[in-house]
Amino acid sequence: MIRVVSVNVARATLRTIDGKSVRTAIGKQPVAGPVAVRALGLAGDEQGDLSVHGGLSKSIYAYPQEHYAFWQVVRAQARIAAWDQVLTPGAMGENLTLHGLLEGDMWIGDYLRLPHCTLALSEPRQPCFKFNDAMGFKQAARLMLQSAYCGAYLSVIDTGTVEAGDEVTLVPGPREVNLRELFQARRDPR
Question: What is the rounded distance in angstroms from the CA atom of residue 134 to the CA atom of residue 38?
Fold first, then answer.
């Protein structure tokens, strides 16, 4: 069964990363109760750089909860966090923390039907220097590329609401382009 573990939002703020002042909203925080799903994203959420985030094809970012243990371990190995320091939902910058749906099971054009809205898988996330900063070490983006633990951008098909605990039904689309394979192809054009 696929379900929404957490719904996460953030307002964009200015932060200094690598000596530069940048606008970012990667630090998403879980919110309780139903959250409005609009064509351009969740109510109360913003994107820091609209040239690479947001828009109709990248309205919402979803990330598998199953990968959180990996990131907890590599952060401990990098001595950024204690071994028992748990990452909270939203730490990857995702709007929806999902359980039961991994990148290899996602195909561009698949629908995610929730009780009160419908979303479509549109493309994989590409990590950047802001992800390195959020994870606390400079190799984080490279590890995302190597592991292909990228999560997925979603477009909004039917607006409505979403909340933690919602069950998700995966409705197959054309099944021509797998999300994980597309992510890996963009990383290595051979």
Answer: 26
